[in-house]
Design brief:
Elements: H1 12-39, H2 42-67, H3 76-91, H4 100-119, H5 127-147, H6 149-152, E1 158-159, H7 170-192, H8 195-205, H9 207-212, H10 217-243, E2 245-246, H11 253-266, H12 272-287, H13 295-309, H14 313-318, H15 339-342, E3 352-361, E4 364-374, E5 379-383, H16 390-397, E6 405-410, E7 413-414, E8 428-430, H17 443-449, H18 459-463, H19 467-487, H20 502-514, E9 520-524, H21 532-547, E10 551-555, H22 559-565, E11 568-573, E12 576-581, H23 583-587, H24 590-597
Parallel strand pairs: 5-10, 5-11, 8-9, 9-10
Antiparallel strand pairs: 1-2, 3-4, 3-6, 6-7, 11-12
The protein binds adenosine-5'-diphosphate (ADP) and magnesium ion.
């Protein structure tokens, strides 16, 4: 889909100034890392190197656990895999020996492939079961390392790779690992602040809404597992060299726990938090030698304290902005007139048609022979008592349910059942009866998620922060800010969405849906929970959206709103059409008046 070109609101230098406050903590950590060699001894070189290596792994795992929300607790498996791949390649056990700087990228590729293998069960398995599957994989890798003696040395082990000068001294190697850790931070931050990072969080906290905006869960997860697997395997190669000699025993479950807890105490959806978490967990057992044996115990205690005292982790502690109180008497004042500058006018032409749609849940006939037409630039009202099949109708149109009978067409094309993630690309956007908003993301990010499929930069371009990625970001942010102005929420753009009122969430959802410049907009009870004034403003907004050529299907209980703005109305009762016609016809329909309007 093409989108309007929006001029960036800020010039480059001031955009840099905007990210500077976020950058400062990372620069401080980096500065400390650079100074460390001048103020300490080789013992700290070892600890610092270890923290850097762990972070290379955790920076990728953080995207899986903290952003995508998948409990991959067995990630030590990919560290093991990377360590053995690098060591075996450098030792020349299976083929002619490879220099270490060539072995690391090969290990990264192997890690990426197995990252997907370990990760794919996440598409089908829920939380706990997925966690167990990653643990199972960790056991398998260790067992193979033990059994495949000719290559891995079995229980006796194998020498880790040696790096050439200047990386063959303690501090030389330290700088190498710090450098790679910095690159990992940069990569993972680029992804986190791209449409891909936002899509991961959307899939985690509002999967249904994410799919409705066209986000493909399998593609997103595969991309992220490739990246996390590659980073973990590179960390493995570095780890093997640091250990100088590896046996399967070196890769204990404790390590996996460390990685995982570093992210939990860091706070999900943050990069700085897990970075600090990794550093803390690496240093903690070293501070007092007797504590080393207690490291697992310490991690567990720390985790309990964090979960109980600051559930949001270190990141929540450092989130000063969201502690400022919001004004309590906020009014939502949409400015529909501004729509023209932001949402492309639809050429129209295509009508969304349902014919004889039927769907049952067990014995319940949720919808039974439904005919419905949503014309471009028109508002079609869908009303009926609770349980009459209104939401189910929207779910069939947006592909969550496959109808058992009937046909759905968009113009001359059939609209295939199922596949909700493909609806956005066909120009169909929607809101939900219960708003599905990502509470931990800002209002602006929530709206930007609506435009995920409008971005042009690939995952790799985002990862490397290439110009097309920046253009996407500027375009999405400018459009989202514009739409927040349209729905009257621009002053709350940077606030966490879970701090907003219910009525405000409804308007966020409308702004998010408009990011797609939709041909059709399905609204499920948008006026529920709104004040009378807000409903009037909502009516004006819906009419303005419609005037841009978008066809609106409006499910509503507020009869006044329906009769005020709908061109056509369909009344459902127990899944069947009770009446259909213009507002005037429905208002005077005997059965409707007695059964539903009750006047
Ligand atoms: P409305 O939105 O008009 O209030 P719905 O479309 O949500 O009604 O529901 C229509 C009927 O289908 C109700 O009887 C409801 O209980 C049933 N129903 C809806 N979704 C499901 C589901 N996922 N599983 C079983 N029954 C469902
Ligand atoms: Mg409903």
């Amino acid at each position: 889909m093409t989108s309007v070109t929006v001029t960036p609101p800020r010039s480059e230098p001031s955009a840099f100034r905007a990210v500077l406050p976020q950058l400062v903590p990372f620069l401080c950590v980096f500065a400390v890392a650079m100074i460390l060699p001048f103020v300490s001894n080789d013992y700290w070189a070892l600890i610092g190197t270890r923290a850097a290596i762990y972070w290379v792994l955790v920076s990728g795992l953080n995207l899986v656990v903290g952003f995508a929300g998948h409990l991959a607790i067995g990630y030590v498996a990919l560290l093991t895999l990377g360590a053995y791949t690098t060591s075996v390649l450098v030792a020349g056990n299976v083929m002619p020996a490879v220099p270490v700087f060539a072995a690391l990228p090969i290990a990264a590729v192997v890690g990426a492939v197995f990252g997907v293998v370990v990760g794919l069960p996440a598409l089908r398995l829920r939380t706990f079961y997925f966690a167990m599957s990653t643990l199972g994989f960790a056991t398998i890798v260790t067992q193979i390392a033990l059994a495949w003696q000719s290559v891995t040395g079995g229980g006796i082990g194998i020498a880790g790779p040696e790096f050439p000068a200047p990386f063959n001294t303690a501090w030389g190697y330290y700088y190498l690992c710090i450098g790679l850790a910095a690159v990992s931070t940069w990569i993972s931050a680029n992804i986190a602040h791209s449409r891909f990072g936002r899509a991961l969080v959307a899939l985690r906290d509002a999967e249904v809404a994410a799919e409705a905006t066209g986000i493909s869960k399998p593609r997103m997860l595969i991309a992220i597992f490739l990246l996390a697997g590659a980073l973990a395997a590179i960390a493995g190669g570095l780890f093997a060299s640091l250990q100088t000699y590896i046996t399967p025993d070196a890769f204990t479950f404790d390590l996996s726990v460390l990685f995982f807890i570093a992210i939990l105490i860091g706070g999900r959806g943050s990069i700085l938090g897990p970075l600090l978490g990794t550093i803390i967990l690496t240093i903690l057992p070293e501070l007092a030698a007797p504590l080393a044996a207690w490291s697992t115990f310490l991690y567990a205690v720390l985790l309990l304290v964090i979960v109980l005292v600051i559930p949001g982790g270190i990141a929540a502690l450092l989130d000063f902005r969201n502690r400022r109180p919001l004004p309590s008497n906020r009014a939502i004042l949409p400015r529909p007139a501004a729509l023209g500058d932001i949402v492309r006018k639809r050429a129209g032409g295509k009508t969304l048609s349902l014919r004889g749609i039927a769907l049952s849940f067990g014995n319940v006939r949720a919808i039974d022979g439904l005919d419905l037409d949503v014309a471009p630039g028109r508002i079609h009202g869908l009303i009926g008592p609770n349980g009459s099949g209104k939401t189910t109708t929207l779910n069939v149109i947006s592909g969550y349910y496959a109808a058992k009978g009937g046909t759905m067409t968009l113009g001359d094309d059939a609209l295939p059942p199922g596949m909700p993630a493909l609806r956005a690309a066909r120009g169909i956007a929607r809101t939900f009866q219960t708003p599905r908003v990502i509470g931990e993301a800002s209002v602006l990010q929530n709206v930007m998620i609506g435009g995920t499929i409008e971005g042009e930069a690939s995952f790799v371009e985002a990862l490397l922060s290439l110009p097309r990625h920046h253009r996407d970001e500027r375009m999405l942010a400018a459009k989202a800010r514009g739409l927040l102005g349209v729905v009257g929420l621009e002053t709350l753009a940077d606030v966490r969405a879970d701090r907003l009122q219910h009525s405000e969430l409804r308007f966020i959802e409308i702004a998010r849906a408009l990011m797609l410049d939709p041909d059709f907009l399905l609204l499920d009870e948008p006026a529920a929970g709104l004040s009378a004034d807000e409903i009037d403003r909502l009516a004006a907004l819906i009419k303005a959206i419609c005037a841009r050529g978008t066809g609106v299907l409006l499910v509503e209980h507020h009869a006044d709103l329906i009769f005020a703005i709908c061109d056509q109305i369909t009344v459902l009762n127990l899944g069947r059409i009770l009446a259909a016609g213009t507002a005037a016809e429905i208002r005077s329909h005997k059965e409707v008046v007695s059964a539903y309007l009750g006047a």
